[in-house]
Amino acid sequence: MVRVAEESVSPRGRTAAGQDPVKRDQILDGARRCFMRLGFEAASMNEITTEAGVSKGTIYVYFANKEELFVQLIERERSSLLDTATSRLLEGESIAAALQGFGVALATRLSSDDVVRAQRIVLGVAERLPQVARSFFGPEPFSGVAILQGYLDSKVAAGALTIPDTDLAARQFIELSTAATFKRRLFGTMTQEMPVAEVERVVESAVAMFMAFYGAGPQGGRSGSD
Amino acid sequence: MVRVAEESVSPRGRTAAGQDPVKRDQILDGARRCFMRLGFEAASMNEITTEAGVSKGTIYVYFANKEELFVQLIERERSSLLDTATSRLLEGESIAAALQGFGVALATRLSSDDVVRAQRIVLGVAERLPQVARSFFGPEPFSGVAILQGYLDSKVAAGALTIPDTDLAARQFIELSTAATFKRRLFGTMTQEMPVAEVERVVESAVAMFMAFYGAGPQGGRSGSD
Amino acid sequence: MVRVAEESVSPRGRTAAGQDPVKRDQILDGARRCFMRLGFEAASMNEITTEAGVSKGTIYVYFANKEELFVQLIERERSSLLDTATSRLLEGESIAAALQGFGVALATRLSSDDVVRAQRIVLGVAERLPQVARSFFGPEPFSGVAILQGYLDSKVAAGALTIPDTDLAARQFIELSTAATFKRRLFGTMTQEMPVAEVERVVESAVAMFMAFYGAGPQGGRSGSD
Amino acid sequence: MVRVAEESVSPRGRTAAGQDPVKRDQILDGARRCFMRLGFEAASMNEITTEAGVSKGTIYVYFANKEELFVQLIERERSSLLDTATSRLLEGESIAAALQGFGVALATRLSSDDVVRAQRIVLGVAERLPQVARSFFGPEPFSGVAILQGYLDSKVAAGALTIPDTDLAARQFIELSTAATFKRRLFGTMTQEMPVAEVERVVESAVAMFMAFYGAGPQGGRSGSD
DNA sequence: AATGAATGAGCTTTCATTCAT
DNA sequence: TATGAATGAAAGCTCATTCAT
């Protein structure tokens, strides 16, 4: 019964109900535009219908209800969220360079119009759909943190860094990298995306501060107890 | 049903429509309970009416509509948000102690159940009511930042700190102080408020890192490259 | 708060929400017309709204949902269903006359257009609203039966009738009285109400048959055992 | 999903659209299960489709719409409704025995769960599909009545019974036989099928009453006045 | 000035029916 | 001929807002 589309546009033959990935994406694209423009509550299924160019019934074949549609949309969007940052981290030639690349990619992505918008919507429904908010940055724990922590762990093991609590250190670096943008963008006090050069400057400061504290050496970083 | 106790009713005669500050607060108190419990969309004016113990019409005399009621509520709540943190900053006997007190107070308050809830609600309507989100932490720019920046400026002027960009440095310290809590609480990956001892440890690390980088000395902290 | 209407049209002052009996009846009247014309499923709340001359919201203040509205309607209608038959029974000068009056009233009422229509609708939703169907003829058991049984019991006690099972006998008389009409009207093979003269003839036969079998005398009626 | 076993499929080549009686029955079987379980309105064509193991389109080739499908279903079911009762009547060795067999069979069948369910559904749509309800018990007039009336006519002709109005007498006997069950089962005041022994007792009373009134003899039963 | 009953647009969701494949 | 994905009208119900009292 299920004959999956072989290329991209529903090619030939039929697909099982609710199984055509092209139509599914078409719906998600329409939903994305609506949710982004209006938020979760204000986006009506009617409008999504129109925007996606499918009928009401079709949407309900692919997605059980509005919440499920939203959850699936976020799921789809999430996957690519931290890809660039992750690869930047692994590509870095030195620790400082790796952190710089990671921090810039992360700060840029997290403060992009789209992601900011998405974060707001997700937080707006966090009470009703807690798992959506919880997994917004990827499978728990906050995956950017997990990745960076893994990286830091490896450098600590190699003796290149001295960090008593790599989970905290990872969070610290991320917060330092996004110090100028995250809250400002989320709460709207910064209305434009920050220029790359400026982001780079902020991350440079973050790297410098981080390395000054955690860089291996006699004075070794401290995170709390001594 | 809920009637205000005799003595708290506007004292003498009648007040101009929509002018009685006691009734105004009574409405805002009810609205606060509803919005916090249900969120902006789910809180119905009917429920607010009941919770506040006033009639529908009265609410509409004091507040033009649901949005305006919400805006006014956030405005009222905001003022006290950073009071403790601010006074902790000014009470500190040393820079490190001042920062420690400020950081702990800030991290604690920002990750309290109430404030987390409020942030989510505010962010959920940020697209529709941008100025509410924008001014959530106080008059622009982000007021915790402004206060801390002022403090840092004074210490720089006194030669106790070396900071090229005190705005950035203020943000950095705040982000470091809330590194373990802010995102986790907001996105729900941390479901309980963090124990005070743990908050203190995190802030100690923040202070150490901050002072290591910006503490006055030959190597003076840098925030860009030179 | 609740100031009940003193006469018939909402007289003066306000009534508590969902408490105005005049408006309540107005809604039930509109609902009655719609349900009778279209049946339960086909009657839309919109149409009832229009027919009753009230707004959607008002209906939902008085009745929680469509089912509840229907239940309340049937409840209201039911009360008068067997009044006439009951009083005819008690007015009869002889047993035969009492039974004749009761039978004619019952057969007439049960086969009237309105009652037939109502029975169909009630039976149509019987699976979903069993208690509505169950109590259609009044509080259990089938109240016409209960009343007649009580009457028969008294006559048996007085020695005027010999009936081993008065519950069965009551049902038998009722079925005999409505033998020509009940099923025919309900299932639509008889499309007009039966002329009174004809009903009277059928009930006369019922009375004759009943008295021949149960009338006190040496041969005494039998209903089952040897 | 449900596929008919090879051998039951239309035997040779193709059948004209909507002409294969095997497929037709297959559809009606599925529809029967759905309608009985859910009632007319609640049974969706989708569910019938699944239950019958045919496609939506196919159903619409065989039956113009949902109503027509229902009509045809009732038509098919109807034929067997009174078979047993009819043969019991003709097998009876005496009039009393014939009536007893007929009455018990009829009362049992009419109050069986399935038939009660079917009657309710049919009555629920009686206003919209009058002919379905009208012909529920067979071709007009009420066929159980017609058959019994024929039987009574023959006995009257033979001088074994004295009945002025055999149509009425037939109805009377049927109502007496089902006096304890019909309304109670239909309106749900009796939730279980009645035990056979009890049905037999009720029918015995019906036969006794009937024979006492219509049994040939000097006093000959009368159904009108003289 | 305060009340709260009434309003009705608008919401999400269902499902009989169609028609391209 | 048979299929079942797609359609879209219409359903029950909610709730911000109004205005007669």
Number of strands of chain A: 0
Residues in helix, % of chain A: 55-70%
Q: What is the helix tally of chain A?
A: 12
Helix-strand makeup class of chain A? mainly alpha
Instruction: Give me the oligomer status.
Output: homotetramer
C-alpha geometry of chain A? elongated
The overall pLDDT of chain A, averaged over residues, is: 87
Order of helices and strands of chain A: HHHHHHHHHHHH
Q: Which two chains have the most extensive interface, and how many residues on each? A: A-B, 56 and 54 residues
Q: Tell me the Rg of chain A in angstroms.
A: 21 Å
Provide the low-confidence segments of chain A as ranges: 1-12, 218-226
Give the end-to-end Cα distance of chain A, rounded to a whole number of Å: 65 Å
Portion in strands of chain A: under 5%
Gist of the model:
With 226 residues, the first copy, chain A, is an all-alpha fold. Chain A has helices spanning 21-38, 45-52, 56-62, 66-78, 83-91, 95-110, 113-124, 130-134, 143-157, 166-177, 182-186, 196-214.
Verbal overview:
Four copies of one chain form a homotetramer. By secondary structure, chain A is an all-alpha fold. Helix content of chain A is 62%, strand content 0%. Chain A has twelve helices and no strands. Chain A has helices spanning 21-38, 45-52, 56-62, 66-78, 83-91, 95-110, 113-124, 130-134, 143-157, 166-177, 182-186, 196-214. In chain A, α1 crosses α2 and α5 runs parallel beside α9 (143-157). Chain A is elongated, with a radius of gyration of 21 Å. Chains C and D meet through α7, α8, α10, α11 and α12 of C and α7, α8, α10, α11 and α12 of D. The structure holds a DNA duplex (21 and 21 nucleotides).
